[in-house]
Amino acid sequence: MGATGRRNAPGGRRPRTLGPVTKDPLIGRLVDSRYEIVDRVARGGMATVYRAQDRRLDRLVALKLMHPHLADSPDFVARFRREARAAARLSNPGVVAVYDQGSLDGVAYLVMELVEGPNLRDLIAAGPLTVREALGLTAQVLGPLGAAHRAGLVHRDIKPENVLLPADGSVAKVADFGLARAVTEVTQTTTGNVLGTVAYLAPELITTGSSAPCADVFSVGVILYELLTGSQPFAADTPIQIAFRNVHEDVPAPSLQLPDLSERVDALVAAMTRRSPQDRLADADAALTRLREVVSALSDAELAVKRGGATGSVRTQEVLAANAEAARTAMLATDGAENEPDDVDAPADAATPGAGLRTVSLPIGSIAPDEAAGSRDGTTRSLDRRQAARAAGAQEETAKVARHSRRRPRRRTVVAAALLLAAAAGGGAWYFTTGPGRTVPVPQIAGMTAADAQAEVEAAGLVWGAPTRAYSDTVPADSVISSSPDAATRLHPGDAVTPVISRGIEQKTVPDVVGSSQDDATTAITDAGLSLGAVTKTYSDSVASGMVISSEPVAGTTVNHSSAVAIVVSLGRQPAVVPDVTGMSVEDATTTLEAAGLTLGAQSEAFSDDVASGLVISSSPASGAEGYYHGDSVDVTVSKGPEMVTVPNVAGMSEQEATTALKDAGLEVEVSRVLGGLFGTAHSTDPAAGTSVRKGSKVTLNVV
């Protein structure tokens, strides 16, 4: 799921359109005094997505609220919160951004970037795509996945529903990193609880639960197959049958359904969906490189191939047209080195006739420059037969002139010039092939291990210079990042080539920020060369408000310099309102208080004519009282029922004595005199003596 538009489903199932018949009680509610819920976007198996207005930053966001019935499951809560931490570690335009995290009435929520537009599932269902469009969309998925893999994260739930296409034509976005988990922390899924949608799961995730970047590559390969053909590779009646086929059958070539498809695209799908992880493309970067090689080798006609059937909806065409530039950039993006020519021409002086030779000024005669010119690679050519004949003719003509002239020194000069020219022809060849004018190209050593690169340089007759070392996010440690001079530059044998050797990805240590204020923690994290990730705020009984409870990764962990550190900040003790527990049993009162975050305190008993025995008469503090917090206790007074007394035996007493005895017993007395009460003596009572009655009951005293 993720920050979605109205058509993008949470969790991993197709969204259910929510009609206006029943109003969601959360619509209009203000969350965390900041996010006003505007309307409900979609509902999935794990959470509901709402469109909300961030009042603080005045922007629309997506608020993803976990279903209440899952709130008691630690596994689901951890999985839900892991989405925020995973996405916060990535800073890539192709990943849905996570802004905030918290809880509403005890139910966890995330606040994310709102992406208005369809997802890949909508695009597949709407109509056929060309090979160019399918490869362009696939390249946009591989880009952010490559960033995740370099950060040590595996998504594990790549499918069309989790690829969102912004309506503005910006790059496609990968959502729902809730299943992602650091490869260095956990390398296997929970036994018996394989996550993700089965049609896109790599065989090893199904059989052993092991997850690696190549598992995501398998999922993207299945998506590419579906973009090309409009259907998944395997069909079956139940998910378990599809899983069985994933494990035991190779993904068929898409050209079986698309006969005009280039075999290069078939090979790409096969390389991404090999059943054995060792035979599959290792990660998203490797898959993207292979995809770009395929695109560069395909003709326009091959890129325009698409399956038969409908031409696609108008909406589909609009989305693809808007996305065209992002797709082109994703398919064709290269670094600067790929744009450099493979060979560099020799230096200008090496191509100049007679380069490196002393210039000779001839006093008389004329010899065409090309007769003494060297080849473009610096080797001087020998005079051909015509040049030799011409030179001999010139010498003969000079001899004739000399015989009829007295100027002998001039003849000697011409002969000397001819000899020098002959020497230049032969000497130039030596100079540029084995002499001091010889040059060799610097070999291409970028990406090689230092040992292999040194052997390559020395084999070319060059010297391995003192290496410098630098960190690199892309070149493995102890491999060559670059060289000075650059590859293909021509040097004289014995010249030095100075390499830059990778130290690998720069590592940083997570500082200890627990107990610090949020501002101090932010400063400490940035001073450590890391970035602040998601800031989650939650209540704490032990950490003061505004102070950091924990960090992820924990203090002392060594991480890549590009990593983000997420922190949990305390809101202080969670306020609680005392509920009304009067009339409840002690057990029910305890449950009600615990649900409100409180505990049952001292119990006292009292008689009550109004409250049955065993039920709560009152609480202290009384219901509705404020200023109390989670964990505080509430005292209760429990009823013993009405107080009972026994009617005393007053027979034979005087009327006055009997009346006093009954009143002392807590009874009301009504005197009935028989025959006028002539003797003034108590005869009996009604109820009779020994009867148990409520205290305060009326008793009739019969006096004779």
Automatic annotation (TrEMBL):
Keywords: ATP-binding, Kinase, Membrane, Nucleotide-binding, Serine/threonine-protein kinase, Transferase, Transmembrane, Transmembrane helix. Residues 1-12 have a biased composition (Low complexity). Its EC number is 2.7.11.1. Residues 435-503, 504-571, 572-640, 641-704 form the PASTA domain. It comes from the Bacteria. It catalyses: L-seryl-[protein] + ATP = O-phospho-L-seryl-[protein] + ADP + H(+); L-threonyl-[protein] + ATP = O-phospho-L-threonyl-[protein] + ADP + H(+). It is an enzyme of class 2 (transferase). Residues 1-21, 335-409 are annotated as: Disordered. PANTHER family: MITOGEN-ACTIVATED PROTEIN KINASE KINASE KINASE 20-RELATED, SERINE_THREONINE-PROTEIN KINASE YBDM-RELATED. This is non-specific serine/threonine protein kinase. The lineage of its organism: Bacteria, Bacillati, Actinomycetota, Actinomycetes, Actinomycetales.
